[in-house]
Amino acid sequence: MRLETKQLSVGYNKPKVEVASGINISIKNAGLTAVIGVNGSGKSTLIKSLSGLINPLQGDIKLYNRPLNTYTVKEIAQKISLVLTKQRLPQHLKVIDFVALGRQPYTNWIGIHEYQDKNHIIKALKQVKMYEAKDKACSRLSDGQLQKVLIARAIAQNTPLILLDEPTSHLDMYHKAMVLNLLKSISTNHDKSVIFATHEINLALQLCDSIILIKDKQVIHDTPQNLIHSGILHELFPQDLIKFDEKAQLFKMNRI
Ligand SMILES: Nc1ncnc2c1ncn2[C@@H]1O[C@H](COP(=O)(O)OP(=O)(O)OP(=O)(O)O)[C@@H](O)[C@H]1O
């Protein structure tokens, strides 16, 4: 088992806020998993908890069958790459230097890259089709290019798990599909378990192998088909503006 939680409760201390509880998730193999839920339901909190960035309130998280809290930061970084889209990028860095940061868990104590590290960096840039832009400053990238560079850094980190918080925010419809397609191909062709928080529920239902749905502090982890047939998607949002169309398997706007 790559990543597993048992009766996990996530949230914050001081003041104590429980965001979701009773979370039982298991990520066994490579695949694409979306974390969905309404604004403020706890998607980011769950992603940060699963990656060890914030401590759980209760329950267990196991990474390769070993409690996450027994791993050092460096050991976690060799298993999980975390892409936080809301974070600020060092604007002065060139694309290639930013992607090289993904090799930090493997470089020696003065941060020198070996030949193998350089290979990983170049391969990652080529995989997201940003090799030609490798010498550009990060400050000169469009939002879509920036997302690809963030993903390239995670690919260069070469971990079995990649966790991302809203990798498609600020992107147009085409670039949202492009980024999700890229994540799908990484998971399928490179044996990665990719877990990402998203508001793109329609795309996630079409593309993902599994979905983690957060609703009213409860979490369900299942296949898109099982979720669709369970009827829970009808209850996700108030029905006055959008409705889940079970036949089309997507959310649609109500006719005026
Ligand atoms: N550092 C924090 N301390 C206390 N509460 C927090 C903190 N960060 C978030 N919260 C609260 O936790 C809850 C879940 O927030 P979170 O950001 O995880 O939701 P989300 O589903 O990712 O939201 P969105 O879709 O709007 O990005 C919210 O009620 C939020 O106010």
UniProtKB/TrEMBL annotation:
Residues 3-241 form the ABC transporter domain. The keyword Cell inner membrane does not apply. Transmembrane segments: none annotated. Its main location: membrane. Keywords: ATP-binding, Cell membrane, Ion transport, Iron, Iron transport, Membrane, Nucleotide-binding, Transport. One of its GO terms (biological process) is iron ion transport. One of its GO terms (cellular component) is plasma membrane. It is a peripheral membrane protein. GO terms for molecular function: ATP binding; ATP hydrolysis activity. It is found in: Cell membrane. InterPro entries: AAA+_ATPase, ABC_transporter-like_ATP-bd, P-loop_NTPase, Siderophore_ABC-ATPase. This is ABC transporter ATP-binding protein. It comes from Mesohalobacter halotolerans.
